[in-house]
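Example record used in the benchmark description.
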Amino acid sequence: MMIRSIAAALVAMVGLYGNLMADDRPNIIVIVADDLGFSDVGFNGCKEIPTPHLDELAKNGIIFESGYASHPYCSPSRAGLLTGRYQQRFGHECNPNSGKDGSSDGLPLSETLLSDVLQDNGYQTSCIGKWHLGDDPKFWPTERGFDEWFGFSGGSMSYWGDTGNRSSEHGVLRNGEVVPKSELSYLTDDFSSEAVSFVERNQSNPFFMYLAYNAPHAPDQVTREHLKKTEHIEYGGRAIYGAMVAAMDEGIGRVTAKLKELGLRDNSLIFFYSDNGGRTDHAVNFPYRGHKGMLFEGGIRVPFCVSWPAKIQGDQRYDHPIMALDIFPTALAAAEVETPKSLQLDGVNLLPYLQHDDQAEPHQTLFWRYAVGDDRFGYAVRDGDHKLVYSVYKSKHLLFDIARDPWEREDLSATNPGLVKALTAKYEQWQQELMPPRWLDPHGPNVEKEEQRRQAAVDAASRGER
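Model output (structure tokens):
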């Protein structure tokens, strides 16, 4: 009996110590929007679409003026976010499941995810929403460091939970089990409800939540209740898109309200960003050039903010370039978890810069690349204030001074051949560290068709000129 009593006392002491440790470690929440335009949130100047909760989040944190996604479209961007590495290093350069047999397409199992590391260090982990990192069960979140998963594995689906002619496994799953459609309402609301529930159930433990909305990605579907928020927008397509954004914002507000109610908000590190630039229709990337799929600023510079009231002073704007790859090491630093030596991260810990301990810039050079074929690529290099873009759309190099011309209106390549050569050399050196794409998708042919359509429209507009 005495031995049992001593053992029970030791267990209680360990539990108490664990709770004290948990109190010191922040909860970490990464919220991802899908195809959201740069100027479609209030904290970036939007006046049409109401985003009061995102604006409050940004007000209580830091807005990244030059916050970049690591890729101009969906799945590769998410692969970079969760690994903290350029996705081209491990061949995840295209959207999976574009071919006839996509069972082998997915975030390589050799890669370590942020969820893996935090789970190994005592964090309760949850993945909610869009996954898009492999449909095969071996790639599912529950096999990649997440204790819980509520969402769908693919790149898009009906907001009402319909799977069409696809099997039920392509619908909403809970820990790999099909969720009956009768238990779903509107996916954006369902994902928000799940996030609130996860916070409530884990209020005594440090947790990591990856809340990946599919809003405002197509299809354009939204409830009448959410549509009331944008009934002032006269253009129907924009009104529907805006209501989808507003629905996401409302859900984020529900999550932050629950954190406040439970006394967790101050010590919760929350990132928000879009996986890439705004979609080609209805989104507004103003004042930047281009859209999702392009390496101009409109395709990669995204709405991006971070908030951690206990450690980061709010009401700030940060202009130096940062990238979604930085979330991984920043989260580990906040959790006081040492980065495993086996990992070769491309992101950097932003905390010294955001807390003003380091006045330097986090990055001198950033890179982007998308595959058009096995050995044909579009790419971009931002080095300091200069940016080189090799556009598959235009079939040429373009050079910009981003400090003076962030809108990329003035191509300086013809008058600065030496700088074009130097930045091309930087890209070539970086490219030697990468591997070929493990699979391809239709992005390359699609962007070339888009440029052809654009040129045809421009030519037609001036056809009657004398």
